Amino acid sequence: MTSFKQGMTVAVICASLLSVIAGCSGNGQSTTDKPAGEHAKTTSSNDEITVEQLPWNVEEGIDNGDRRVMVSFTNNTNHDITEFEVDYSLKADITDEQIAQAFEGTASGVTPEDVRNTSLNCTIRSMTGQGESATGFCDYGAWYMTSMAQLDLAEPDILTVQYVNTDSNTLDTVYYDFNSKKKNKDGDSTPLSSWPENSPRASMIPQPKSALISDLLDSEDQLRFDILGFSYEDFQQYTNECVANGWQISTSMDDIAYFVPKDGFSLDLMYSDDSSTLSVYLNKEQQ
C-alpha cells in the first residue's frame, strides 16, 4: 500500500472571514467543540462567511485499508463550497530529530529537509452543499500523512475557502490568516459561464446539468469549458450521455474519454479527481 498522492493548486479570490478558534484535542485538531446547530445561520447569499460557520476537525482514520490523517468540516454557511483547505507551517522549535521520528517508515527516502521544504496541507476539494459535511486528506507535498504525530509538528497557517457566490454568479475564495487573525483585503472573482444555448457547437454535445461552468470558450473552431464540483460518478454519467448523443468512444481510461471524430469535430473529456473538475474539449478537425 502506498501513501503517494498527486497535488494541485487552486486560484483564490477575496471576500471576508471574521474570527477563528484553533485548538488541539487528544486525538485530533479542531476549531470548536460546539454542535453544528449552535453556529450562526446566514440569511442572504452575500452574507460574510465566518469560521464559526465551518466547524472542522483533523484526526487519524482508515481509507480503503490505508491509514490516513483526515480532515472534515460541516458547511453551515449559505453557500455551496467547492474547496476547504488548511495550510500548515512547521513550528519554530521543531528539530530535525523530531521530524525524522514522526515520518519514520512512511515515504522511502523522505528527509527532514524534504519535509521542511514542502507544503503541509489538509484539503477537501468537492462540492459541499449547505448543511452538508465532507472529508478529505492531509498531505506533505506528494505524500499522504499517516499519523497525527506528523501533523502535530505544525500549526495552522492559512485557511482557504472557495465558494459559489450566487449573487454575482462567481466562484469566490476567502482567506484567513491564523497568525495575524486577519482576513485578506484584496483579490479577484472567477466568473461562472452561462451555457451557450444558441451555439451550433453546444448543440453537438449534452448540456451539463451543473451550473458551475467556468473558462468557457466558444468559437468556430472550438468549444471548451470546465465543469466544477463534478464527482467521478458525474464524469461517468456525462460520458454515457455523450455516447447516447451519438459519440463513439475511441479511448477510455480512469479519468479521460476520447471520442471518434464526428461531423468534423473531435471530443475529449478529462477529469481531475483532485479538483473535482471535468474539462471538455470540442475541437474542429484539421483539414
UniProtKB/TrEMBL annotation:
<feature type="region of interest" description="Disordered">
    <location>
        <begin position="182"/>
        <end position="204"/>
    </location>
</feature>
<dbReference type="Pfam" id="PF20234">
    <property type="entry name" value="DUF6591"/>
</dbReference>
<feature type="compositionally biased region" description="Polar residues">
    <location>
        <begin position="190"/>
        <end position="201"/>
    </location>
</feature>
<feature type="domain" description="DUF6591">
    <location>
        <begin position="194"/>
        <end position="284"/>
    </location>
</feature>
<feature type="region of interest" description="Disordered">
    <location>
        <begin position="28"/>
        <end position="47"/>
    </location>
</feature>
<feature type="signal peptide">
    <location>
        <begin position="1"/>
        <end position="22"/>
    </location>
</feature>
<keyword id="KW-0732">Signal</keyword>
<protein>
    <recommendedName>
        <fullName>DUF6591 domain-containing protein</fullName>
    </recommendedName>
</protein>
<dbReference type="InterPro" id="IPR046526">
    <property type="entry name" value="DUF6591"/>
</dbReference>
